Amino acid sequence: MSRDKDEGDYYESLKYFDFFNRFRNASDIVKQHQSPFLKYFEGCRRVVSLGCGRGEFIEALGERNIGAFGIDVDEEMVDYCKKRGLEVYKADAAEYLRQMDDGSIDGIFTDDFAEHLDTSYLIKLLRLCARKLEKGRYMVNVTVNPCSWAAYSGIYLLDPTHKRPIHPESMRFYMLSAGFGDVDVELITFRDNHSRLKKVEVRPDMDADARRIAEAFNHNVDMLNEVVFGPENYAAIGKK
Predict the structure, then answer these.
(1) What is the pLDDT of residues 51-93, one digit of tens each?
(2) How buried is 142 (Cβ within 10 angstroms: 0-12 exposed, 13-18 middle, 19+ buried)?
(3) What percent of the chain has pLDDT above 70?
(4) Residue 58 — left, alpha, or beta (φ > 0 → left; ψ -120 to 50 → alpha)?
(5) Which CATH code, of 3.40.50.300, 3.90.1720.10, 3.30.930.10, 3.40.50.150, is assigned to 5-192+231-239?
(6) 3-state secondary structure (DSSP) of residue 234
(7) Pick from 125, 167, 133: nearest CA to 40
(8) Rounded to two decimals, what is the model's pTM?
(9) How far apart (Å, rounded) are the C-alpha atoms in residues 58 and 51?
(10) Cα angle at 42 between 21 and 51, to 5 degrees?
(11) Cα angle value 30/168/116 (rounded, 5°)
């Protein structure tokens, strides 16, 4: 993640590493959730995980013999990763990328990162990422889906270091404007059906009025489920 320099004391007093571990899923679950995105980095030699946190994605890439390193501004996160043998640097993402040659990295991944950034910083960072990324390679940004009220009121509002939610179509536009030639958005849900509003059974023996009422009720339930209990996250996948 990235943060304003004048907010340092606040985040140190929060002890974000402890906060993160309290509310983030266990590492094995995080790796399971991130596993669908490994395919975008097959054959890569130098993938960077921005705002890498505990380094789950770096570790998963290493298990596939894909070279990777991480950047994070939180010193405790960096120390934790280094103790696990991961290549991670304490730095601001944009400042670090500016020092790299254009086209020198062959993959970029973020998860629970973009929502920590001011919009102006995010747009500048995406432009940098497009410049530093090798042609034909991918950047994957996973973030909270604000179109789901349950995700917004839960995952997003829970963390006081979040700056603003990013609509999926806004993220697509930012990435296209930054220089990515193609951007796909994939909605991600980990919630089972038991967490959604229930529909009524439409039985064969219902009369016409009862069937019409049941179908209208179920239609309204579907719309509410989409808005309230829609996918918690989305991934914006850009190809250079």
Answers:
(1) 999 999 999 999 999 999 999 999 999 999 999 999 999 999 9
(2) buried
(3) 92
(4) alpha
(5) 3.40.50.150
(6) strand
(7) 133
(8) 0.87
(9) 11
(10) 30
(11) 60
